[in-house]
Amino acid sequence: MYRFVDEYINFLAVERGMSLNTLEAYSRDLNRYMGNMEKRGIRDIQNISSDHVIGYLGGLKKSGLIPTSANRALAALRGFYKYLILQGTIKENPIAHISLAKTWMHLPDTLSEDEMENLLNQPDVKHVLGRRDKAMMELLYATGIRVSELIMLTINNINWQTGYLIVMGKGGKERIVPIGQVAYDHLSRYVDRERPVLLKGNSTTVLFLNRSGRGLTRQGFWKIVKKYAKKGGIMKKVYPHTFRHSFATHILERGGDLRSVQVMLGHSDISTTQIYTHVTRERMKDIHRKYHPRG
Question: What is residue 17's predicted lDDT score, i.e. its pLDDT?
Answer without folding.
Answer: 84
